[in-house]
Amino acid sequence: MTARDIDERSAAFDLAQRLRDPQFRAYMVRNGYVSGTTVVVAYDDEPVAEVFSRIVSEAQPPVIVAVHRPSAKPYGFVFMQIGQVDYDASPAAPDDDPNIGDSASIGMLYDTMDTQTRPKTHLTIPNDWRPARFKVQLAGAAF
């Protein structure tokens, strides 16, 4: 087991422990969580491509990405909602964000969307076999 695997489990355990708190559960609902929705835990510095690859291989969107960020108030997580995935070569939408580099982290994506007051966007995440286009929004924003 790598150090990264241990860290990811630590963040997931942190989230699970916080779910015992009714105030935290209410906070998650305000940030888009609906009972039965899959929650994918990611670290702030985890590459976007890795997070989205996990979503495609381990879950069926829509999902909530809980980005572990210990400095985030009040609970140490920020949230993103990941909507439908399209695999066809659809034309770019007006809110497409083509500037996702190979070294971009999920935290960088969150910060960019938050700073630009862009609560939602479409992202095409390249990979070696089947590029996927995702609807992405900051938690709590209507899509």
What do these coordinates show?
This protein is an alpha+beta fold. It has four helices and five strands, in the order ααβαββαββ. The chain has helices spanning about 5-20, 20-30, 50-60, 105-115; strands spanning about 40-45, 65-70, 75-85, 120-125, 130-140. The chain has a five-stranded mixed beta sheet with strand order 1-2-3-5-4. A hairpin with an 8-residue loop joins strand 2 and strand 3. The longest helix is centred in the N-terminal third of the chain and has 16 residues, at about 5-20. It is globular, with a radius of gyration of 15 Å. It starts with a helix and ends in a 5-residue tail after the last strand. The mean pLDDT is about 80.
Rg over C-alpha atoms, rounded to the nearest angstrom: 15 Å
Secondary structural class: alpha+beta
Mean pLDDT equals: 78
Order of helices and strands: HHEHEEHEE
Assembly state here?
single chain
**Low-confidence runs of at least 5 consecutive residues:** none
Attribute tags:
five-stranded mixed beta sheet; 4 helices; single chain; 5 strands; 143 residues; alpha+beta
Topology readout:
Blueprint: H1 3-18, H2 22-30, E1 38-43, H3 48-58, E2 63-68, E3 77-86, H4 106-115, E4 120-125, E5 132-138
Short description:
With 143 residues, this protein is an alpha+beta fold.
